[in-house]
Amino acid sequence: MKNGALKTCKFKLKNLFTCVVFSTVAMLSCNNTSNDTANNPKENNLSPRDTGAIYTPPDTSTIPHDAFGDMVRYGRELVVNTAHYIGPNGTEGKYLGNKMNCINCHLDAGTRPFGYSYFSTHARYPQYRGRENKILTLGERVNNCIERPHSGTPMPLDSKEMVAIVSYIKWVGSNVPVGQHVKGDESLEIEYPNRAADPEKGAVIFAEHCSSCHGKNGEGTWNLDSSTYTYPPLWGKYAYQKGSSPSRVVKLARFIKANMPDKKATWQKPFLTDEQALDVAAFINDDRIHARPQKKDKTHPDYPNPATKAIDYDMPPYVDTFSALQHKFGPFKPIVDYHKANKQPVVW
Ligand code: HEC
Ligand code: HEC
Question: HEC states along the chain?
């Protein structure tokens, strides 16, 4: 980009964002956030995500045979067999409240494009987070996942296990420039229909395409000695919490579209249509029919600045006039339009 150029771009991504590029500061000012961050100019550098090929993480055979490499290998081991090491009966500490593993969501240990990958994670932290309304380090962000999807207690930031996980995440993103996104670090795009996502339609899809592995009651399937899951739970007391990223309908639908049913769907060739992915996500995340754990520590309210909430975040207050139900299930377009018209951030 040349200095001084001023260009307006319409992202094909979601067709939702009008972005203004001020190349002098090489900054992309835009409301596009693929994770639940608020608008952070540093977050929004013009990046290879929008132009480049899918990022390829280095091969595990290239992990160096030195002290750093040993930490990377241990970190990968922790991401794959999380419950074994730091689960409720963990050999290295009892931090998780359930027996899921990071790899259940961060597919292929964070190396699968559009599978909640860790591609650019290390390159983008420390980062502003709307939920806490402050800058979090990568270790603190890891603890968010330990506290929410895993219903656990934070690990000490200087523990060997935390340093190992952060080292592994750094290694996955070895070739990603600081501050940048790369293609495949986000979730797959989805078109929003003009209707709300429908849990009843989702129930039918779930019975047909999901329950064989995840169980009729979303409880998942244990492995032989019940030390972890062969197929992880989707709701119930051992699943991810209310208010966590996957409990958001759009966030979950975008993951499902690229990756589920397992072995049938790929990001290149999704199995469900966008509407089906939204409907089944609505069914899974419908708190009127499915229970899931709640945040334990209520002393710190989430999103002290409501403008930083994702559109599909289902707990008020909001900076708009739409109901919590519409924020959760849609239709989403009117909310997005309202935010744009009123110069409010459009966060996903
Ligand atoms: C139930 C699903 C689930 C589990 C289990 C889970 N996470 Fe996450 N994690 C998510 C979701 C969803 C996000 C948000 C991804 C996004 O915004 O695209 C996330 C985000 C993250 C991020 C920030 C990524 C970024 O680029 O901003 C880190 C780091 C992370 N998780 C680490 C972990 C670790 C380590 C574990 C295991 C201890 C773990 N997670 C377990 C679902 C999960
Ligand atoms: C053939 C078995 C199988 C089927 C069918 C299947 N899944 Fe999964 N699912 C898995 C496995 C295995 C994982 C964990 C991936 C890993 O650990 O590598 C997973 C992970 C998930 C996760 C993230 C982890 C969690 O528990 O929160 C979600 C959400 C999910 N599946 C939703 C679905 C939906 C929705 C369908 C139906 C459209 C579906 N799955 C069909 C096997 C399956």
Answer: CCCCCEEEEECCHHHCCEEEEEHHHCEEECCCCCCCCCCCHHHHCCCHHHHCCECCCCCHHHCCCCHHHHHHHHHHHHHHCHHHHHCCCCCCCCCCCCCCCHHHCCHHHHCCCCCCCCCCCHHHCCEEECCCCEEECHHHHHHHHHHCCCCCCCCCCCCHHHHHHHHHHHHHCCCCCCCCCCECCCCCCCCCCCCCCCHHHHHHHHHHHCHHHHCCCCCCEECCCCCCEEECCCCCCCCCCCCCHHHCHHHHHHHHHHHCCCCCCCCCCCCCCHHHHHHHHHHHCCCCCCCCCCCCCCCCCCCCCHHHCCCCCCCCCCCCCCCHHHHHHCCCHHHHHHHHHCCCCCCC
**Per-residue pLDDT tens over the stretch 43-99:** 444 566 777 899 999 999 999 999 999 999 999 999 999 999 999 999 999 999 999
> Does the C-beta of 162 come closer than 6 Å to ligand 1?
no
- Output the ligand 2 site: residues, CB below 6 A: 103-105, 107, 209-210, 212-214, 231-234, 240, 246, 252, 256, 260-263, 272, 280
Query: Is the fold of 60-172 the same as that of 199-284?
Result: yes
For ligand 1, the distance from its centroid to the CA atom of residue 3, given in whole angstroms, is: 36
User: Is domain 199-284 given the CATH code 1.10.760.10 in the classification?
Assistant: yes
Q: Domain ranges in the chain?
A: 6-51, 60-172, 199-284, 306-341
Ligand 2 midpoint to CA 270 (Å): 14
Instruction: Tell me which CATH homologous superfamily contains domain 60-172.
Output: Cytochrome c-like domain (1.10.760.10)
